[in-house]
Each structure stands twice: as C-alpha cells, then as structure tokens.
Known about the structure:
Elements: E1 25-26, E2 33-34, E3 55-57, E4 60-62, E5 65-67, E6 70-78, E7 92-99, E8 107-112, E9 115-118, E10 126-130, E11 132-135, H1 139-155, E12 161-165, E13 179-180, H2 183-188, E14 201-202, E15 205-211, E16 216-219, E17 229-230, H3 233-246, E18 250-253, E19 257-262, E20 268-273, E21 276-278, E22 284-289, E23 292-296, E24 302-307, E25 311-312, E26 319-320, E27 334-337, H4 344-352, H5 355-358, E28 366-375, E29 385-391, E30 400-406, E31 411-419, H6 429-436, H7 440-446, E32 450-460, E33 464-477, E34 480-492, E35 498-499, E36 502-504, H8 520-540, H9 546-552, H10 555-562, H11 566-569, H12 574-588, E37 595-596, H13 628-634, E38 647-649, H14 654-663, H15 667-670, E39 676-680, E40 686-690, H16 700-704, E41 710-712
Amino acid sequence: MLRLLCKSKPTSLSSYSPHYTCSTTQHSSTHLSVPQITPNSFTPSGFPLNSPNPLKTSTGFRFFHQYGRKSQFYAYENPVNRVFLPGCSLNWRNVGNWKGNGVGFMSVRSLVGGVTRGFCSESDREVMSYDVVIVGAGPAGLSAAIRLKQLCREKDVDLSVCVVEKGAEVGTHILSGNVFEPRALDELLPQWKQEGAPIDVPVSSDKFWFLTKDRAISFPSPFDNKGNYVISLSQLVRWLGEKAEELGVEVYPGFAASEILYDADDKVIGIATNDMGIAKDGSRRDNFQRGVELKGKSNYFLYMRVEAIGMLSGRNGFKSHTCASNYMHSPGRLTLLGEGCRGSLSEKMIKRYNLREKVQGQHQTYALGIKEVWEVDASKHEPGFVLHTLGWPLDNKTYGGSFLYHMKDRQVSIGLVVALNYHNPFLNPYEEFQKLKHHPAINRLLEGGTVLQYGARTLNEGGFQTSVQMIRLQIQGGRHYANINAMLVKFQSIPYPVFPGGAIIGCSAGFLNVPKIKGTHTAMKSGMLAAEAAFDVLHGGLNMDAYWNNLKNSWIWEELYRARNYRPAFEYGLFPGLALSGLERYIFKGRFPVTLRHGKPDHEATDEAHLHSPIQYPKPDGTVSFDVPTSLYRSNTNHEHDQPPHLRLRDQSIPEHVNLPKYGGPESRYCPARVYEYVADDNGQLKLHINAQNCLHCKACDIKDPKQNIEWTVPEGGGGPGYSIM
C-alpha cells in the first residue's frame, strides 16, 4: 500500500523471484570441498529429502549437508549491491557443525541491502528499504531529513531518506505556543525569508504578569524575545515538509510507526507501521491492509546469517540446535526517532537499552499545554504582542502559567501550561484553562471573538539534573521558607540519545528550554546534529555515538545548562521558585554553583483523594469558556471507531479498585479530551469507560496515571487531531 505513494518504485526483495545457484568452493581453513547445490523440493512433513541440496520455496530455501557423522554448515559472503540478483554465485564458508547421527534442516536469514529478512518467515508485510528511516515529521525529524540531503549534495553522495508521520498530513499533529527563535533555521535554511517560510510576525512587545483572581501585576519580562517571531508551528512544519521533498526526501503522512524491528544481535534495523482495517474484536474488516516494514539498507556487502532452527534425531531423540555464523554489521541501516514528547517507540528504546541509566539520568518531568486560537476584533489585535503570566488560576503549589500571543490575520493564541507533578487529584487542567479566560485582563480581549481551533499536548521539562553529593539550601520568599535539596555534580534527565542502529532526536529526548518556554529551535538543532552524525556513519564509517558528542559541544548544551535550575526551583512552591529563579537569572546568570534536583516522578506526585477537597468549577458560558465536546469539535479530531483501542490498560482492575477509591478517579480530570469517564453499570457500580476516539494524542494519561496502568499506543495512521493553525 505504501509503495503506491512512491515517486519512484524503490528496490525491495519482493520485486524478485531469483533462481538460486551455489558454486563449488573450498574452505580455506578446513579444505572441505562443498559440492554444487541446486534447488530441490521439500517433503510434505517439512524435512528435506535425503539430499544435500537446498529447498527453494516461495519464502526462501533451507539447506543441510552431512559428512558421515559430522554435519557442516556453510554461509556465504558475497559483494553485491543492494539486492541478490538471479544467477549470483555464493562463496560458502564453514560456520559450525553438529556431531552425532541424525538428520535436520536449517533456515537461512540474510541481510539483503542491509535488510534482515527471514526467508522462511510467515510475515507478508511489504518491505521498503532506505538508508535512513525517520519517525515523525516534526521540527526535529524534518530538520534531520533536510540536513542529510544537504550533505548528500555537498559530498555528491546518494542516500535515500524516508520520513513516516502518523498524522493524516504533515503538521496536523503539531501544536506549540509558539514564539519561534530562528537560530536553528538560520543554520539549516539561511534563505528562509526569501523562500517563503510562514514566519511573518516579529515580536513587537513582551509582557510578564503575575495574576491574582482580579488583578494583573506587571513585572519585568524575564524573556528576551527580540528577534523572535510569533508563528503557527503546524504551518512551519508543513513548509519544512515541502522543503524536504524538494531535496528528495520521501515523506509519508498517514502511516503510524507501531513497531521497532531488530536483527539477531538486538540492533534496530527499522520500523513497521501498524495494520489498518482491524475491527475492535480483532477481525479483519473489508478494507484491511497489512502494515509496511521500513528498513535500512546497505550499499556495500551482502552478508548472510545461517541459523540452525531444526531438529536432530538420533539415539537421544529429537533435539533442537542453533548454530550461527558471525557477520559484520554494514555501515547502513539507521533509524531516527523524532516522535515528540513521550514518543511511544522512543520510550521503548530508552527502557530496552537503559539509556537514562547510561548517563545516570533522573526521570523526565512533564507539563500539559492546552491551547486555543481565536479570531479577535481588529481594534484589539496587536500583531507581535507577547504575554506570559504566573499565578492564578493555579494554586501556589502547582507550577504553571499562561501565554497569549498575537499572530497575523487577527488571530490570537492563548494557552495554559500545567506541570504534571501537581498534587491535588481533583485538579482539572482543562477547567483551569476555562477559568483563566474569565480573568478581567484577558476576558476583555476575547469578548466578541471566535474560537478557531483547540488542542493539547504534553511537553518535557526535565533538562539537566544532578547526582552524588547532597547539600541543603534554605530559600526565603516573603513570609515563605523552603529547604531545597541540591547536588554538586551535574547530570541530566535527557537520556543517552544513541541506541544500536539509531538515535532519539527532538522532544522525544527532551531539549526544551524551560525559562525560554521554547523547544522548537533546540529540537531542530538536535535533528541536524543527528543527521551529521548519521551521514558520517553511512559515508565515513564512523560511530553514531558522535551525535552525543555533537550535542554536548553545541549551543543546545550551553542553553540547557544555564536553564537547568528554573524548573526544579518551583518544586518547593511558587514564591521560593520565584526567588530562586530570579537569583539564577539576574545574579548568577545561569551559573549558580549547584544544580537543583526534581522531586518524585509526575505519577507518584499525585496525593490520595482524602487529603484534598473536590474543586467546584463554574459551568462554561458558551462565549469565552466551553465544554469539552465543543472544544473537541474544534480540534478536528477523528479516529476510525471500529478499531482496537490504542489506549490500553495493563491491569483492568486498577481503575475501579485503586484509582477511583484511592485517588478519586483522576483520569477523568487530567485528560483534556474526556477520553476517560466513570459510568455506572446496570448494578450502579462505577466502571471506567474509554472514549478512545476523543484522543488528542497529548500523552497525559501515559504520564500522569498514578499506577502507570495506561499505555498509549498509536492508533490507525491518519487518526487523531487535525491541526492547521496551531
């Protein structure tokens, strides 16, 4: 299915039906003559006939050769380019043996153009091969793709690059504030102004308010937005996608990467998209389409791995045995994961390869951003006006704040960011956002306006962290005191971003600059650095670990080091946080001698319900504040209803037996799309009902659930929100 979208049909193994022949050769060490092998057939039982010849079938061939009581296994190593063509002879080499009587068979697994393929596999998925596969058409993924193709042109090298995106179109799943710092774009595409980038509104005014319920107190702005622009990130990403395609990148929106593919040595060799047309009950609907495997390929040598997976019969009965040859990994086959915050595949890589532990990293911490884009009266519109606030409507123990940016065409983006380590299980971020819009200083701008779009997304706030020697500081803010734990040796919540066969880029790793409230420029730069390392791997034979060194030597690292103490400063409350962040910015200028550390992971920070009182939120007025169904309609969210739920409970009993009685059912409140509801059954018992079709792909449930019982997985490709101006 995916191949039909290609501008030029890529080479894949499924395009060929070769006739395999093997020429006689002599092993250099054992001097055993291997007789010529020609195709033959298998018996119905699955065992080879009494012959040393292999079987050629529609899915591959098996071979076995026996010298008396010693069975020899041979693999080949043959220099061919990308595909194994008909008539190519193989140079066999001895790789192992079985001792004893018996008969058996072996399966052959090969690396054809860098793609691990089991010729005897049951899989019927289409296979497409690329030098680099990138997951996620966001700022990081597209910047990586563009930079790779730029390097190809500079060095006169031809590398194939593919970007797969779960959104129906490039940009439809992209949401951000966004006051854009063009530093990375200046490096990537210096002529972006002349080339028509949708970056038109420079920041003209930069305000910072502290809100109480009825007042807005102005403070000096800690943000330096001179030279920055108010943009729609979804529109910028769409433009970046066009630039990538102009350079020869193949971009495939509407296909969700659901599975990581590995070779026999646990190295990542690509991804697979999920099957489409699966019904809720697991059956195949009429429109069923098998997923596609997107794998790396090699331009150098073809290697074959031989494994014995069959059985031996002899005096001691049947025995299974495995014997494998050693082979080199070619320089090809790289996968870059740029899925955004809390990427599902990225999280699997971090856990599988212990990437946080590799750098002694602490857990990541997150926030949830909820946003609307309004069209306001022309008399109230000030293009380039930027406002940030702290304080109301959040309580003094909850970190967060709001933003209000004037875009072009009378459009204003307004949003609330709430740190997900909040304690009160009755807090509802969506309802807090509705309250915000009724503040007198904000309400006057929105009155008479119209909401154009709504959305939500989580963001990383971890950054640098610390370990080793603990010290204690006491910070005073007004009448408030706080004892603050700090450590003298730095490390980061950012995981080691390199895994065997690829790397994690952008917000999947977590490069947000918290005091700037910006992560687009750092995400783009990380993608560019990963692309440069990947090019050196593919073209120069270097190691992908260079990406980590590139990061640490870049301006990303300098930024994040200076910003490292702002987010954990608010771990101890609003006023101590303000005091310490002010000290960090104006006195130490990001060089405070110690590094503060985060508290508990966000899901562990939730208090039990009996420690708090339920919050009574006002009903929406339908003019400035709205109910969830109305907002969902404005997000253009759509999923195929008849498909397996992509929001999965690891333990079906936890919602009713733990979350509801102990925490008051917080999933019904932290989700900004009312995906989770407790509904009474026929016996009056409350049961959790999951409205998966409402999902905005914000990932809050995957982060905040107290028992980490909810697993967010990708739905059918193309499902989810349909942002166009976010």
